[in-house]
Amino acid sequence: MKMPRNLALTGVLATSLVLTGCGGSGAENDEAAGADGATGEVTMWVYPILTDEAANKKFWADTVQKFKTSNPGIDVTVEVYPWAKRDEALAAAIASNTAPDVVYLVPDQVPVYARSLETIDSMASEDALNDTQDNAKAAATVDGKLVGMPLLTSVTTLVCDKRAFKKAGVSTYPTTWDEYLALGPTFKAQGIDLSLITADASGTLNVSYYPLLWQAGGDVLNDDKTAAAFNEAPGVEALDYFKKMYDGGFINKDYVIKAAPTEQTGVAKGTVACTWGVPTQDLVKLWGAENMEVLPPLNKAESVGYGTVGSLSMLKSTENKEAAMKWIEFATTPENSKPLLTAASFYSPRESAGSLYPAGSVDAALEKLVPEMTVGAVNDKSRAVMGVLTPEIQAAVIGKKTSQQALDDAAKAADALMK
Amino acid sequence: MTHPVHQPPQPRVTSRRRLRLDTGTPDAGGSRLGRAVRLGTLALMAVLTFFPFYAMVLISFKPAGAVDFPGILAPWNLELSAYQRVLGGSDLIRWFINSVIYSLVSVVLVLLLATLAGYAFAKKRFPGRSGLFWSFLAMVMVPYHVTLIPTFAMLSQLHGVSTWWGLILPTIANAQAVFLMRQFILGIPDDLFEAARIDGASELRTFFTLVVPLCRPILATLGVFVFLWHWNDFLWPLIMARKTDMWTLTVGVSSLQEQAAPFNVVFAGATLSLAPVFIAYLFAQRHFVEGVASTGIKG
Amino acid sequence: MSAHPALSEAPPRGEPSAVPRPDGPSPVRPRRLLSHRRREAYAGLLFVLPMALLFIIFRFGPSLAGLLLGFFDYYPGDTPEFVGVENFKRLAEDPNFWTALKVTLIFGFLSVPTGLAISTVMALLVRRGSRTVNFFRSVYFLPVITSLVVAAAVFGWFFSTGGPVSSVQSALGLGDASWLRSETLVILALVVVNVWTRYGYGMLILLARLQDQPRELEDAMRTDGASSMQRFRHLTLPHLRPALFFLAVIETTASFQIFDLVYLMTGGGPARASHTLVLDLYERGFRNLEFGMASAIGGVLFVLTLVVAGIQHFMLGRDRT
Prior knowledge:
Number of domains of chain A: 2
Strand order of the largest sheet of chain A: 2-1-3-11-6
Shape of chain A: globular
CATH class of the largest domain in chain A: Alpha Beta
CATH architecture of the largest domain in chain A: 3-Layer(aba) Sandwich
Radius of gyration of chain A: 23 Å
Oligomer: heterotrimer
Distance between the termini of chain A: 36 Å
Mean pLDDT of chain A: 87
């Protein structure tokens, strides 16, 4: 279809407007930084981390208020955005130079946006950096540069339903892969699934296949993070293990393709023995803390699980970088973040935080496992790598390919992405 | 071809007669068996159609917890907790009003401009008509995700972010609506326009007294859908309205939900936000069906 | 200027009067005819103008920009880097792209005719309003306003292992595996749900069109002893043709661009068996921020849809004279 010339012209004009990076009109903060640099406006996007809207709003309002008393020159605006379509909203804002100054990101997102994020190694105070646990810092580090300040962490470990164990007459809890898999038939006889595991292409592998991969002693990428490593022996072993659970009928087979919302799964009905992918707050609601047996992550070569890390990142387009950094440090300090963490069952990535939870509680047990958690090897293509790997995992599990072949195919595609 | 042959067109009196429509009398023909088959099909489709909607409404009245199909569909053990969660938002009324503004203004503008353009494309010869029409139509075929960022970047250049015009105007350029109106106006006999012209009616008068009334059934249908598209729209208001007091209901309600919100809360949000559309539909339905028949052609 | 002569030749006419006028516009004198033509052209341009302005500003520019990005490496916020046809070459070499293309085409070619047929049948069934029919008509509108999340959840259960479909299957000795886990049946399941969510739209559009079908003609044909099939073929179908052309184009576009439903129900699985082009586009664009590649896919999809629309225009959209 030929377009009339004048229309094409308009289009090209519009294109060049978009393509040349939008001039300088985007930024809203015209205020020049003051002499000490700590003045100006800071806008931050967060998401409903607390389910209770009023509590969420109050937490941020209180924190901003407290910040204001020690930093009267800085105006902080916190916008609570929906979780849904947050990548679209953020990408559009970055593309048009209207991004917020600070944004809350999780490990899946950090590498993708790394190019737009400010490196804060030299901006953050030494104390804060030294106080933050290494695995949490690793989650906000891309290509050796720290691009976010960890605010909170979580733990995905093995959590079992005591009632299911009682019903199946199993009295010892598993610690290794072999012990766990051996329980499959016993639970199956009672109509109970061994686990809830998925390779949903619109979800993440961080709470399904990757922990198995790490437990087998492997990793997603090689040591210098330039090529896929998941097709080495541990990766194959992990995928075979997944497939054994599928073939044995120890898991709900449908969820391999598409995860269901937790309330629709056996977890809500009490027909799943253990999980390592369901947020613990949900388990508390569905099972009750008294029925939860918190165990270390399963062990093959090592015992390791995935710990999500929510961090506050500064955008490169931020005008008042010092002000933004002050705010980020303030908000991530344990004493300030504590109300948020405890209300939502998260844990502090700071060593100085100590224990936030009363001894004997589920959260206290989980909190102790924070140092065992990892996000694995990441580079700026990690999410794309996950995108090509997931369908291949499905192919292997449903029996279309062998584990080795599926992982080799995925590795080929992944290496092409990282070139 | 067995096209029935007509009287050559006469001015309006006959036209009005010719255009008399079905007035709702049940099909006179058809055996009893035929009618039973027809009713059976209708009923079966109705059940299949109704079921998920029923699930949506019912689950929204259930307590949080296991969603065990089909057990959850039993109509007891109902409560309002999900609605309390959804309605707990402090800015809910503001968001509702924003949604109403966004949807209603858009419906009025889309219907007016699409009918004008559709009429021109269908009945007026002007240079560049088919090229322009196909350029319009081609715009439906560019995937939304491709244009989203350029459109937004351009609006931010024009300082349209967080403004009402920036939110509404881009959504008025609705190729589907223009296309639909053109297709319908194509079907209006030329003789009617000829007659109006001979009567000396101005172009605008012809448009408002002839085209618009004749298009009432399709305008009512299209109006409901344009309303629905805007009312349900999430992504565009999300990225365009950068202040929470400009958020629409869809954006606002989803900003109250945790990352994996329970079904009953999600469904309560869906039910609440779709109720106005259904009410609008019930009002508009009268126009889909009776159409011109009840009003005749005012010329 | 246009590759579609059919649209520019002869003034379009409505079917009911698709009979040559006995005398034509001869009584009008040539000079008046000319000025009438000009007046008509002015009016046409003027009527199109407001919409055209909005399109030029808000559609043509961004669309062109978006499609041109297919020739660039573009990360949001950076200046795009021209790479020629590199992105398209990468697509051509990527087997996953070809799978997505195949899945999209199969989905479209199954979904569109099925949807159109059901919309047409339903419109014919509910065209004559009685109280019962009015009630049914309201019910058929419900899928249109049932949220996709809900539809995905309910149909997800419908097709799941142990759900209604699988129960029937295992009663017939076909095993109880979910359709959504089968590489062949998954598309069929998605077609069912897609048709379910969309047939009401088509039905209402056709219904609106049926409202201005002259009743007398049908009565006359009936008196002449024409069967209902004959009446449908020779009267109703030609009358519906412009609306069917509209629906064919819109439904094809919509099914080629299917995204939310697939994302919610299968995520593209199993093993890419339902991985459509827009899912691929979305992943590359908004999950990986490779907008150049995403736009290249968008460009391919755009051309594909335009070609199919051209074919549909040839088959359905031309005014037969």
